[in-house]
Structures are given as structure tokens and as C-alpha cells.
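[step 3/7] fold_predict: job queued, chain A
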Amino acid sequence: MTKIRSLMKKTVLVKEDDEIVSLAKTLKRHNLTGVPVVNSKKVVTGFVSERDIVAAVPKKNFLSLKVKNIMKKKVISVKPEDPIVTATKIFSGSKIRLLPVIKAGKVMGIITRNDCIEHMLRG
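[step 4/7] structure written:
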């Protein structure tokens, strides 16, 4: 059975105190739709996506908001040793496009819906 660790990719992390403009540039530069958020000790504290940025646009002082102001604090994630089917089930039951791969509170990488589809096509 294939494990998530064999398909996961390295990811970019953003910090809770990063500004939204910096976040948006990071997503664009790395062609990502979302990223895990970490604190100063590199422990995952949230997840933020393009959808969160768009939802924040109408807020007062939008450009001065920090990532911690718009991130989701409930992080749906997988572990490196989980089977691929674990990620596939999460993707099939939600609008989630990518999942952080977390071990002992630290981000090891990410896995995307596309990673699962490509794996399936390779058979």
C-alpha cells in the first residue's frame, strides 16, 4: 500500500504574523492555492488559502491584516505514514485541494488532489 510520504512534496510555510500581501505573493510565486501557517517555533497553527484571502477583501484595513487574522485554525491534515486512500477520502468529501502532511506538529510537506489522481493513473 502506497504511503503519503512517497507522493508528498515540499511546501512553503507562512508565519502567523506575515501580511496578506506577502501571503498572496508567496501563493502566486509558488503556484499554490494554500499553505500551512506556523508559529515562531515552526509548529502548525493554521492553514490559509486563496479563498481566505478573497473572503477578507471586504474587511476594513484588508491590506494591514495578518495571516493569523484570516487563517483557519482547524487544520485538516494527514501523516506521512497514512495510506494514499486517507487523503483521497478527505479530498472526495470536501472542497479541499491540498493537505499539509504533519508529523509531531511539524510540516513535512503537502499532498494535492492532483498528486492522488496522478498516482491512480500510474496504477
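[step 5/7] annotate
DSSP finds five helices and five strands in the chain.
The chain has a mean pLDDT of 94.
exit 0
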